[in-house]
Amino acid sequence: MVVVDRTDQLLPGFLPEVQDDLRRQLDKLGVELHLGTGLTAPPTIDAGRAGHVAVTTDHGDEIVADIWFRAFGVRTTTDYLADGTLTPLTEQATVPVTERLNVQGYDHVYAIGDIAALPDPKMASYAMTHAEVVVQNITAQLAGDQPGTVWSPTAERRILLPLGTYGGAGQLPTPDGAAPATAQMVYERKGADLFTAKFASRFNNPRRPINDRD
Ligand SMILES: Cc1cc2nc3c(=O)[nH]c(=O)nc-3n(C[C@H](O)[C@H](O)[C@H](O)COP(=O)(O)OP(=O)(O)OC[C@H]3O[C@@H](n4cnc5c(N)ncnc54)[C@H](O)[C@@H]3O)c2cc1C
C-alpha cells in the first residue's frame, strides 16, 4: 500500500509521539509513504475501481497500483442553504452560529457539526460535543428556562485512528493535557467495532455491546 500526501508530516498538529507511533506501525505493515509531494496528474481511472493505476509524484517517483482511493477534497455540504434564506453562509460555506450554537439571528434554530462555523476540526467527535451543548439548551428551553450552555473551543486535539482491528494510534485529552493513546486503547475504544455497539445502545438497540460478549 502506498500513501501520497502533500503535507510533510503524518497527523500534523498532533503529539510527536503519536506521529512516531503511527509511522512505526505503518512501516511494520509495509505501507510506503510519499509525504510532502503530490501527483503530477490524477489517475486516469476512477477512484475505487480496480484497474491499472500509474502515477508520478512531484518528486519524480512512479507509483503503480491496482486501485486508488481519494482521501482529499472534502467539502461542507451546505448547497441547500446557499440561497441565504436561513442565514448568509460564511466564505467557507458554513453556517454562522452563536456561542450557544444557535444559527445567527434565531433563538430556536441550532447548527452543529461540520456545517457550523466553528474552529473545531470537522470530525464526528467534535460534532458530538456540539450536540451536548444543544441538548442542554433545548432542554432548558422546553422547561421554560433560559438556554445557558455555551460552546467552548477544545484546546487539545483528539483522535482515535485504528489500523485494522487491533492496531492504531491516537491522542486523547487528560487533565494534564493531551496524551498518546496506545494501540490497545484504540482497539478497546474504537477499533473493535468502530463504535457500532455504542451507537446501537444509544438508539436503544437490545444488541449487547461487543465487549460484553462471551
Ligand atoms: C472518509 C471519512 C472518514 C472520517 N473519519 C472520521 C473519524 O475517524 N473520526 C471522526 O471523528 N470523524 C471522521 N470523519 C468526519 C466525520 O464523518 C464528520 O465530521 C461527521 O460525520 C460530521 O457530522 P455531521 O452530523 O455534522 O454531518 P454528517 O455526518 O455529514 O451528516 C449530515 C447529514 O445530512 C444529510 N443531508 C445533507 N444535505 C441534506 C439535505 N438537503 N436534506 C436532508 N439531509 C441532508 C447528509 O446525507 C448526512 O446524513 C470522517 C469523514 C470522512 C469523509
From TrEMBL:
The UniProt keyword set, sorted, is: FAD, Flavoprotein, Oxidoreductase
Under InterPro entries, the record lists: FAD/NAD-bd_sf, FAD/NAD-binding_dom
Superkingdom field: Bacteria
Question: Keyword Cell inner membrane: yes or no?
Answer: no
Q: Name one Pfam family in it.
A: Pyr_redox_2
Q: Is Flavoprotein included in the keywords of this UniProt record?
A: yes
Q: Which residues form the FAD/NAD(P)-binding domain?
A: 2-130
Q: Which family does it belong to?
A: Belongs to the FAD-dependent oxidoreductase family.
Protein's UniProt name:
FAD/NAD(P)-binding domain-containing protein
